[in-house]
TrEMBL record:
InterPro entries: HAD-like_sf (IPR036412), HAD-SF_hydro_IA (IPR006439), HAD_sf (IPR023214). The lineage of its organism: Bacteria, Pseudomonadati, Pseudomonadota, Alphaproteobacteria, Sphingomonadales. The keyword Hydrolase applies. This is HAD-IA family hydrolase. PANTHER family: ALPHA-D-GLUCOSE 1-PHOSPHATE PHOSPHATASE (PTHR43611), FLAVIN MONONUCLEOTIDE HYDROLASE 1, CHLOROPLATIC (PTHR43611:SF3). GO terms for molecular function: hydrolase activity. Keywords: Hydrolase.
Length: 203
């Protein structure tokens, strides 16, 4: 393992929990209908289009036309997105703070819709510790597209081989690795801590 000059985090499911059902379970009492809605109407694949920069109003209007009778639920997706983030990933914020105390440069690359990110970012002071954050919805680029990693490397000012990229998504990890980044496929804060200690970034 080469020396690490900077650590680059994903956000969703690495630093914060994310689950669409956290919102819609409050609005749909019937478990079967909840399963159907989250697997057919407001799916992660559909949401990914918003992460990529598609217009929210257009997406919601299109979905309302496709699935009549669900307007209130689709409006909730647009206006209550923070409720899909039920809390922090246990242990991850502590790792970020420890790295910051050790003066390790911190960055992030996140697939996150621009408007939703602005709303969420205002609630989370942890990101004050990050030197820069590349947000897919702002850039109209999404992981695992290599272009978002190249953009991030140019913005962050470190060579890919000198940065450790942490993500829970295997495709994102594979894309970064192919571009020369050092990588950690996130499974838990405990496993991440062990990796960082082995790299002498924590200890």
């Amino acid at each position: 393992m080469s020396a690490i000059d900077a650590v680059v985090f994903d956000v969703g499911r690495v630093l914060v929990q994310w689950d669409m059902r956290s919102l819609f379970a409050k609005l749909i009492d019937d478990p079967e209908r909840l399963d159907w809605f989250c697997s057919t109407v407001v799916t992660e694949e559909w949401h990914f289009r918003h992460d990529a920069g598609c217009d929210l109003a257009e997406m919601v209007a299109e979905r309302k036309a496709q699935f009549p009778g669900h307007d209130d639920l689709l409006d909730a997706y647009a206006t209550r997105f923070l409720e899909t983030i039920p809390g922090n990933v246990p242990g991850s914020h502590e790792i970020v703070r420890e790295l910051a105390r050790r003066h390790v440069p911190l960055f992030a690359i996140t697939n996150f819709a621009s408007s939703f990110w602005q709303e969420f970012r205002a609630t989370e002071p942890l990101f004050d510790l990050f030197g820069d954050i590349v947000v897919s919805g702002d850039e109209k680029l999404v992981k695992p597209d290599p272009h978002i990693f190249n953009l991030a490397a140019s913005r962050f000012g470190h060579e890919p081989a000198a940065m450790l990229f942490i993500d829970d998504n295997a495709a994102n990890i594979a894309s970064a690795r192919a571009l020369g980044w050092q990588v950690h496929h996130f499974q838990s804060a405990e496993a991440l801590r062990a990796d960082l200690e082995s790299r002498q970034l924590l200890g």
